[in-house]
Amino acid sequence: MKIISPIIRPLVLSRLAVGAILGFSLIHSAPATPWITNSPLNLARFSHTTTLLANGKVLVAGGVGGIVGITDSAELYDQTTGTNQPTGSLNTFRRDHTATLLLNGKVLVAGGFDGSLVLQHAELYDPVTGTWSPTGEMNNPRRFHTATLLPNGMVLVAGGRTNSAAINSAELYDPATETWQPSGSLSTNRNLHTATLLPNGSVLVVGGGGFGASALASAEFYDPTNGNWTLVENMKVPRFAHTATLLPNGQVLVAGGAGDAPLDGAELFDPVSSNWSQVASLHVARDLHTATLLPNGNVMVTGGFFNGGGTATVEEYDPATATWATTTALNFGRWNHTATWLTNGSVLVVGGRGPGGGALGSVETFTPQIPTAIVLINPIRLANGSFQFNFTSTPATTFTTLAATNPSLPLNNWTVLGAPVEISSGQFQFTDSQTSDHPQRFHRVRSP
């Protein structure tokens, strides 16, 4: 009998000697923790970028800086001290640009808007010297575009908007030569879309629109081997200013965004079938929010524009149950901010727009509590056909055991079997007497 020890929230299968397959999805919730307010930015800003550097610091660059307007300023957030220090200024004032960490450790900033013109300019930040230097210009000026680092080290820039309209051009930046080359065209003009690098190396571009253009439902693949773009099935709902997050199982979660108003809908894209499926809706409709993949596989959505202003609400999507749960709120309602996963295990939220649409200088962090792992011990089938398993976890904790014949069922469709018995301090045991009535049976243990 081969046993696979689970971590938090996986589906773990155990094949018994009799050939039955039983599963365990072990969920141990953790107490809520607050968002911690850190030292403020040296300059309040929105429409900026944040980039986690190889040295663990976070580069905050450009944006709209409160009363100073569009800015060329940049600063570094130090996660060890929770403080921000100025660094070299950009060569160009810009907002609505992209920032991409290259394989050589430098940061490529491309495009944006300087207050008068949409930019073709690109520049590089060197963390060693703290300075910026011009690099090759893009073939097209653009803002509200996407930039994706490919496995070969090149950067794919796609779509965006010029001074007058959205565009469909795409191009590649080569860090070795510091030059840009056209790389096919999107099927349609789009801005405020998303681009997600998939495990097979292709890029999924989704949605877009805005600024007088209708929201788009279309999606397409970019193939880096030949530079071709291929349409796939449309999303269920058109949207722009949404988020797209690659999940550990290879699917892509698209959440929120806007059509005629902020959206609460969410859907999943399966790269294998190239199909979309709707999942449970967010509790709060929102656009211009952020989405961050957490170590446990959940996706944390923060803030966003809702009901005429910024919301402080935060919620997490659990792929195991395909549901959203509201969690600890931000200290400040905000939209057009950034969220960055830090190497110390925290989520960093920076700036954005606050009350009245003004720039925020606030910085806050959230550290998810890692639940105590539940470790399976000796799951066996008893002589009477029942199935029994023991596990260890926190002493005196309350657990509930559930069962189903299909692990993909929503959690509220699982049968509640009762509470395991604590046979000694931190040692729990449960027996399912109905196991013999089913050819296959899956179990969940959750707390509380």
| Largest sheet descriptor | 5 strands, mixed
The structure class reads mainly beta
**Stretches with pLDDT under 50, minimum 5 residues:** 1-31
Strand content: 35-45%
Oligomer: single chain
**Shape assignment:** globular
Write a concise synopsis of the structure shown.
This protein has 448 residues and is an all-beta fold.
Explain the layout of strands and helices:
Blueprint (H helix, E strand, L loop, with lengths): L11 E4 L5 E8 L7 E3 L10 E4 L5 E4 L12 E5 L4 E5 L10 E4 L5 E4 L11 E5 L4 E5 L10 E4 L5 E4 L10 E6 L4 E7 L8 E4 L5 E4 L12 E5 L4 E5 L10 E4 L5 E4 L10 E5 L4 E5 L10 E4 L5 E4 L2 E2 L2 E2 L3 E5 L4 E5 L10 E4 L5 E4 L12 E4 L8 E7 L5 E6 L7 E5 L10 E4 L2 E4 L2 E6 L7 E8 L1
Parallel strand pairs: 2-39
Antiparallel strand pairs: 1-2, 3-32, 4-5, 5-6, 6-7, 8-9, 9-10, 10-11, 12-13, 13-14, 14-15, 16-17, 17-18, 18-19, 20-21, 21-22, 22-23, 24-25, 25-28, 26-27, 28-29, 30-31, 31-32, 33-34, 34-38, 35-36, 35-39, 37-38
Give an overview of the whole structure.
The strands form 10 sheets. The protein has a 5-stranded mixed β-sheet, with no helix packed on it. The chain contains no helices and 39 strands. By secondary structure, the chain is mainly beta. The chain has strands at 12-15, 21-28, 36-38, 49-52, 58-61, 74-78, 83-87, 98-101, 107-110, 122-126, 131-135, 146-149, 155-158, 169-174, 179-185, 194-197, 203-206, 219-223, 228-232, 243-246, 252-255, 266-270, 275-279, 290-293, 299-302, 305-306, 309-310, 314-318, 323-327, 338-341, 347-350, 363-366, 375-381, 387-392, 400-404, 415-418, 421-424, 427-432, 440-447. The radius of gyration is 24 Å and the shape is globular. Residues 1-31 have low confidence and may be disordered.
